[in-house]
Amino acid sequence: MTEPVGNDSAMKKILLLAFVEENGALGKPALEALSGACELAQAFGAALNVGLIGEFAQKAADSIASCGANQILAVQGPEFASARCATDSAAAVALIRAAEADFVLAPQTTRSARCMPGAAFRAKGRIDTRVTGLRVAEGTLLIQRWYYRQRMVAELTRSQRPWVVLLEAGVFNPWSEGGGHAEVSIVPVEPVETRTRIAGIEPASAGTQTIRPDADLLFVAGAGWTKKQTDGEVHVEEAENLIRSFLDLTHASLGSSKSLVDQSGEGQKVISLLTHMHQVGQTGSTPRHPKGLATCCHGEEPHVVGWRFINERRAVNLDPNCGWARGKADVLYVADAFAVMGKVIELLGKDAGQAAV
Ligand SMILES: Cc1cc2nc3c(=O)[nH]c(=O)nc-3n(C[C@H](O)[C@H](O)[C@H](O)COP(=O)(O)OP(=O)(O)OC[C@H]3O[C@@H](n4cnc5c(N)ncnc54)[C@H](O)[C@@H]3O)c2cc1C
C-alpha cells in the first residue's frame, strides 16, 4: 500500500469488524482483514478500532491485544453466537456507530456477506463486497474489485461514509503478532425482533464440505474421469474412490469442470461428491489457493479463466495437446490420471502410516 498521507488523514477512523468463531477465536479471514486494517491505518496515520461480534469476545480480543487498536469494542451474548441477519446487522450497526467509523473493513465470509449490506444501509453508508486490494493515494482510499465474471478489474473510491469494505480471502497475510490481555468495551444493542431460532447446523450431504477455501491445494476433477477408458469401459466408482481418498489424505479443496458437474442433469453416472458449487471457471468460481492440480480436465479457456488466482498449476491429461499444454499449466503430466492418482494415494498413505507410527 503506497502512503502519501493527505492533510485530513488524522481525522479518519478505521474499524475492523469481525465475527468470533464458535471456539472463541478469530478465523483466518478475520486475521487477514486485520492485517489489511493495520496497513490502512498506517497508510492514513489513522486510528484503528476493532469491533467483535460473538457469544464471547474476550479470548478473541486477547489474541489480537498487540494489534495497536485504540479500542476493542464488542457485542456479545448467546444471541450473537450464530449467523442470523437480524442480530448480526444490529450488532454491526451498533459497533460502526460506537466507533464513529469512516472506513469499516470486514472479511468476506458467508456471515458478513449476508448482514453487512443491511448494516451499511442502516448506518447510512455504502458497501463494496469482494474487494481484492486496497491502496492509499493522496489521502484517498482506492479499492480494487473485479467485474463481469473476473474479466475486468477496476479501482474505485467513494465519498460516502461510513464506507464498508468486505475483503476477499488471500489478499493479506493473516495477522500473527503476539496476544496479551485486551480491555474490551461492551457495546449494548437494542433487542431486535427475530423469527429465526437456530436449532443446530447440519452440513449438506454432498458438496460444500469438500469446498475448502483455506486449503493449500485445489484438486480439479474433469469429465475425463467419467469417460470410456482404454479398456472401453467407464470407471466412475473407481474415479470417485480415488478422488475421495486423495481429498481425505490431503484435505485439498475439490473443484470441477463444467462438463463434469453438468452430467447430473443428463442422467449419466456421476461422481456424487460434486455439485454446481464446485464448478471452476468463467461461469463458476475463481478460487484462491497456492497450488492447483487438474485431472482428466482438458483445460479450455472458459475453465482455466477460473484459475486466475492459483499460483502454481499442474495437470494430468492423456492428451499432450490439451489446453494445459498451451502455457496454461506450469507442469503437464501426460499420463493416465487413474494410474497417477492411484500411485500418489499409495505414497500418501505410506507417509500417513509412517507419521502415525
Ligand atoms: C459460455 C461458456 C462458459 C463456460 N464456463 C465454463 C466454466 O465456468 N467452467 C468450466 O469448466 N467450463 C466452462 N465451459 C465449458 C468449457 O469450454 C469446456 O467445455 C469444459 O471445461 C470441458 O470440461 P472437461 O475438460 O472436464 O471435459 P472434456 O473437454 O471432455 O475433457 C476431458 C479430458 O479428460 C482427459 N482424459 C480422459 N481420460 C483421462 C485419463 N484416464 N487420464 C488423464 N486424462 C484423461 C481427456 O484427454 C480430455 O482432455 C464454458 C463454456 C462456454 C461456452
- Sketch the topology as an H/E string, one letter per element: EHEHEHEHEEEEEEHEHEHEEH
Largest sheet: 9 strands, mixed
Secondary structure: number of strands: 14
Overall pLDDT metric: 92
In terms of structural class, how would the helical and strand content be classed? Answer: alpha/beta
Kindly report the CATH topology of the largest domain: Rossmann fold
The CATH architecture term of the largest domain is 3-Layer(aba) Sandwich
User: What's the overall geometry?
Assistant: elongated
The CA-CA distance between the termini, in Å, is 47 Å
Strand order of the largest sheet: 7-6-5-8-4-1-2-3-9
| Bound ligand species | flavin-adenine dinucleotide
What CATH first level of the largest domain would be assigned? Alpha Beta
Proportion of strand residues = 15-25%
Given the structure, what is the number of helices?
Answer: 8
The share of residues in helices is 25-40%
Radius of gyration: 23 Å
Number of spatially distinct domains: 2
